Amino acid sequence: MHVLMIRHGRPESGNGDSDPALCAVGRKQARDLGAFLSRSGVARLVSSPLRRALQTAEPTAQTLGLDVAVIEGLAEADRFGAGYRSVEELRREPAVWGRFLADPVGFLGADPVAFRRDVLSAFETVLDAGAAKVAVFTHGLPINVMLSHALGLDRITHFAPHYCSISRLSGDSLERLSVVSVNETTFLAS
């Protein structure tokens, strides 16, 4: 099985919304992604329940004529926070960025152990469904959890996937995953 982990497109920022919609650039990224995935052989689509992930999945669902299954455990750690803050915003404040890097899940208000457990459980349901190729529309920290797990790392990696990037895993169970690629963006138009 091949799993394409897709970070959502660029969302609106600075409006205090904890579940922002995609901005114009993010909607364009999602359309470019949908066109690219139309030739990919993806047989199943799953998404985080958060708006930015669902809106990223919409063009692909329309192009492929597939429904999007929503899986709660694919949501970002900030899902119940006061407002969305992008990695770019966090990096502008060195002290804040340092706190985020020390404990990204805790910084966003979630329990790191429970978050990891929930993400792994969500991906297990994706793998159990048995589709040959699945596109998973999610967020930066769930992608980091899965990359860390596949690489056998105890800590979450500090990798910042680009908006609408694809990171690929291959395997048939959580115990047998390998990383195929990380952060593919060549399909995105400038």
Structure description:
This protein has 190 residues and is α/β, with parallel strands linked by helices. It has a single domain (2-184), classed as Phosphoglycerate mutase-like (Rossmann fold). It contains seven helices and six strands, in the order E-H-E-H-E-H-H-H-H-E-H-E-E. The protein has helices spanning 24-37, 51-64, 87-91, 94-102, 104-107, 112-128, 140-151; strands at 2-7, 44-47, 68-70, 133-138, 166-171, 177-184. Strand 5 and strand 6 form a beta hairpin. Helix 1 (24-37) packs parallel to helix 2 and helix 6 packs across helix 7.
- Sheet-strand content, in percent, reads 15-25%
Mean pLDDT over the residues = 93
Number of distinct beta strands: 6
Helix fraction? 25-40%
The arrangement of helices and strands along the chain is EHEHEHHHHEHEE
User: Which structural class matches the secondary elements?
Assistant: alpha/beta
Report the major sheet: 6 strands, mixed
Alpha plus pi helix count: 7
**CATH level-4 homologous superfamily:** Phosphoglycerate mutase-like
Question: Which geometry do the CA atoms define?
Answer: globular
Please tell me the total number of domains.
1
- For the CA atoms, what is the radius of gyration? 15 Å
The side-by-side strand order for the widest beta sheet comes to 3-2-4-1-5-6
Distance between the termini: 31 Å
In the CATH scheme, what's the topology name? Rossmann fold
CATH architecture group name: 3-Layer(aba) Sandwich
- The low-confidence runs, each spanning 5 or more residues with pLDDT under 50, are none
What CATH first level would be assigned? Alpha Beta
